[in-house]
Amino acid sequence: MQRAPYASDPYRSAGRRVAEPPAPTRSEFQRDRDRIVHSTAFRRLVYKTQVFLNHEGDLFRTRLTHSLEVAQLGRSIGRSLGLDEDLIETIALAHDLGHTPFGHAGQDVLNDCMKPYGGFEHNLQSLRVVDSLEQRYAAFDGLNLCFESREGILKHCSKADALRLEAQEPQGVAHRFLHGGQPSLEAQLCNLADELAYSAHDVDDGVRSGLLTLEQLEDVPLVQHYLRETLAEYPALQGRRLLSETIRRMLSQQVYDVIDTTRAALAHAAPADADAVRKLPRLVRFSESMRTASAELKRFLFANLYRNPQVHDKRLRAEQVLRELFEHYLAHPDQLKLDVQGAVDHPRACADYIAGMTDRYALREHERLTGKRLLG
Q1: Which CATH number does the domain housing residue 59 bear?
Q2: Which of 147, 241, 244, 332 is placed for a possible disulfide with 14 were both Cys, Cβ 3.0 to 4.6 Å?
């Protein structure tokens, strides 16, 4: 499909922080995507927790498979809307690069450890990874991504962090958090595709783990509708195939709802170009009825999966691992890896080092340093 006038145009990008000549065979957004795929932070996502710890089963989602699913959903929806698929894929593959080991448990404990030093937030850390922590190029730190890619990666930002970023980069990626406005349609879409992906795959992983049952899911209207629809067409279907078919139908309908609702919003707002999009309310969205149904599914998952006693017990152990690692490195800066030893901001270097760890490396390091084996 031809790129729509309101889509981001790689040949009219707001540019990179360090100017570079154009690539002869790739657009600017294709180049960004390739840099992310070749980064060390991207490779580490394969051993980072989504909900279930990496060692708990080969078929559970990881941060890497989640990012790939977000990219697939984003590209599919973006194609129907005439958006730039390469920018969508870039943002989707990069959006979790700053996530800690052990999922949100790691984010929360690092934020707690870093409260005296400015806090920790995984969206901000993802931007930090692509702006400075990756070390691959002779001419600059980080990956030197385009403004549009960086804008999409930073989907949340506190006022204090936005003020700090704005001071470093006036009119930059944090400007909208201080003065209102929206990011590109591609960034808006990735935000929603992230929500679509994790709700669907957490249902799948939750049942696979035995922590959720189909009987429980029948109480969730969004799942119930497609479960009954599937059984009406295939009365003998059961087990994994019944679950997979139900999730497939549910996810497809959510995708169609986003496409139809966004098309209507775009037709009404009629933005002339990508810059006009930034001055309008959020345009990529669910219908009201689907938004309500999706929010109810998220509430169910929070109560029955994310706060399940078995998941919560592992969360507490994971928090202990990372807290004790942080305390150790804070007290022993010489034991950080060589390229962050002697950093001016030592607490931030500790957080960078720990956030970059995979689940299994964090567990190995913790056991080596403390003699305790808390997980695995």
Answers
A1: 1.10.3210.10
A2: 147
